[in-house]
Design goal:
- This protein is of the alpha/beta class and 322 residues long.
- It is 46% helix and 12% strand.
- The chain folds into two domains: 11-243, Aldolase class I (TIM Barrel, Alpha-Beta Barrel); 253-320, Orthogonal Bundle (Non-ribosomal Peptide Synthetase Peptidyl Carrier Protein, Chain A).
- Strands 1, 2, 3, 4, 5, 6, 7, 8 and 9 form a nine-stranded parallel beta sheet that branches.
Amino acid sequence: METLDFGKNCVIGLSPMDDITDLPFRELCKSFGADLLITEFIASEALNREAEKSERKMRFTPAQHPLGIQIFGANEEELLQCIEIVEAQHPDFIDINWGCPVRKVAGKGAGSGILKDIPKMLHITEALVKHSHIPVTVKTRLGYDSDNKPIVELAERLQDIGIAALSIHGRTKTQMYQGSADWTLIGEVKSNPRMHIPIFGNGDIVTPQQALDARNKYGVDGILIGRGAIGNPWIFEQTQRVFRGEDVREITVAERVEVCRKHLLAAVEFKGEHTAMFEMRKHYSGYFKGLFDFKQFRIPLVNTTTLDAALEILSRIEQHYQ
C-alpha cells in the first residue's frame, strides 16, 4: 500500500472546486503558500472521449507539485479506463470524488450519491487502487444523511483496501452546503488507533484562526480550504503565518488589485476571454471583500464581458482606494 507523506505536521491544501480551482488559480494559491493542490473534478466519461475541457482541467505546471487529479463517475469500467489517461499527466496522486452533493453528479450515483451504496463504493475504490500505478486518495462526506453517518467505520474499510489518504467534508450529502460542518466525526476518524493514513478535514474553514483551531482540536494531518480561498489566495500565506505563531499581515488594496489583475490575465490566456470573464465573476467579491462602498465597482465588474473593460475598472478601484 502506498501512502502519502507531505513532510509537515499539518498540510494546508486547496480543496477542489469546479470552475474555481483551475490552473491559473492553483498557481496563485501555490505562490501564496498552499502545500497541496487538487484539480477541479473531472468526469471519467469525458476523459475517455477526449473532451477538450476535461483534458484542460488536468493540466498543471511543475511548480504545482504535490498535486492530485480528481476524477468522478459511477461506472467502474469508465473509471478504470481513465486511469491511464490521468497517470500520463504524472500527478502525485489520483483523488476519487465520492463527496460532490450536486444533483447532476450525485443523482447518477457518483460523488456523494455513492454513499447510498457503500459496498459499491468500496468495490470500485479497491479496483481503482489495484489498477493505478500511483497513490489513490478519496474525498467524501460523513454519510448520506443525518441518519446515516458511517464515516468512522468507512474510513477503516477504505484504508484496508489501500487508499493513500482520506479527505472528509464535515457534512452529509443531503446537507449540501447548508448548516455548519461537523468536525467531530472527522476528529473521531483521526483519533481512531487503527487509522494510519493521512486524514484531511474540510468544511467551513474561512479564516486562519479557524484552521489553527481545527488543527489543534482534531489533530488532522491536513486541512483543505475551499470557499474561503475563492478570490482569496492569501488565506494560505496567512494560515501558514498563524501556524508559525506570526501576525497576519494586512493585504493592501493595491496588492488586491495587482493579484486580481494577474489572475484575470492568466485566466484569459488559459481559457479564452469569454469563459474567463464569466468564471472570474466568482472571485471578485473575495478579492475586494470588506472594502467600503465597493458596490459601485462590483456591479460593473461582474457584468463586464471584455478584458479591456475589466482592466479599466480594476485601475479605477486602485485609484479610488489610494
